[in-house]
Specification:
four-stranded antiparallel sheet, 5 helices, alpha+beta, 8 strands, 306 residues
Length: 306
């Protein structure tokens, strides 16, 4: 009986021995193949990162040369033709509107176009003015689309309806009244009011008074004991005011901006944009207290969802 059991084990050993070797060989082959694939992936990732780095470096160099060439025409190469200044202004606006404040250059070119002492022909004056306003509208539209994460409000003013004490064109709340404020990702509720005080049709600008009231118990749970705050600001709004650069700081890491979307002989349209500080321009660094507020909100959000 013992001999028979031993024979069975011997037979099993004879059968399983090559199978074990085959399994071992397959395992070694699979591990080697996996290592080769991983090494190939790492090589591809490294090559992709290197190519993207070189592309970014070349793009940065090109943008630097373009910027230097365009900005020198405004600072060093005066006087130059208005046509060249408008062209350089277009290059700067389309390529660097998120990085630098180009509104002074817009205002400078606009002043030249409005100056009655200039030698610019009237037909050319209107053509260049239309180009400057067109590029300004395009930049404003691009920035508005990128910023309106927390909402926006539109307002229209017909100049014949402007009252001596001013006319309110925007008066509403953001986020909307149906939004649940207990969500950490929702912006604090605020009431916005925009009143137009004066209109300068020649410069296509409006003097406005902005009121922002932060509601009680809006935002995070630690604001339950805070009283409502009110911010009042008065300023001019024109086509050269871009929201990523020219905006108003609010509490709890948010901002608002007022932009001019349209202006003709009878009517003007404005848009108020409400957005987090993280969407502001690259040059506009957040304050230390804003960064601390952001860190605390993230910490509360993580603790809340554990």
């Amino acid at each position: 009986m013992a001999q028979e059991t031993k024979d069975n084990w011997d037979k099993a050993a004879v059968i399983l021995s090559p199978v074990g070797g085959l399994v071992t060989a397959l395992a070694v082959a699979w591990i080697g193949h996996s290592l080769n694939l991983r090494q190939a992936d790492e090589t591809n990732v490294r090559l992709y990162a290197e190519l993207m780095g070189r592309r970014e470096e070349a793009d940065t160099s090109l943008r630097k040369d373009m910027f230097n060439s365009a900005i020198k025409s405004f600072i060093e190469a005066r006087p130059v033709s208005v046509e060249k200044e408008v062209l350089n202004l277009e290059l700067l606006a389309y390529n660097f509107h998120e990085s630098i404040d180009i509104s002074p250059l817009f205002k400078d070119v606009y002043e030249q176009l409005l100056d009655p002492r200039s030698t610019i022909r009237e037909a050319d004056r209107e053509k260049y003015r239309a180009r400057v306003e067109s590029v300004a509208r395009e930049v404003i539209d691009k920035e508005t689309a990128a910023l309106e994460i927390a909402g926006k409000l539109d307002g229209d003013l017909f100049f014949e309806d402007l009252k001596p004490q001013g006319s309110i064109v925007i008066a509403d709340r953001l986020p909307g009244r149906g939004t649940r404020q207990e969500d950490e990702d929702v912006a604090p509720a605020r009431d916005f009011e925009v009143k137009v005080l004066r209109v300068n049709k020649e410069r296509r600008e409006m003097r406005v008074a902005l009121k922002v009231r932060t509601l009680e118990n809006s935002g995070s749970s630690d604001s339950k004991n805070k009283e409502a705050s009110l911010l009042v600001s008065t300023f001019w709004v024109g086509f050269s005011d871009f929201p990523m650069i020219d905006n108003t700081r609010l509490s709890e890491g948010y901002r608002c901006a007022l932009v001019l979307r349209d202006f003709d002989e009878l009517h003007a349209r404005m848009t108020l944009i409400y957005f987090p500080t993280s969407r502001a321009a690259l040059k506009d660094k957040p304050y230390f207290d804003e960064m601390m507020d952001d860190l605390l909100r993230v910490r509360r959000h993580i603790a809340r969802h554990r």
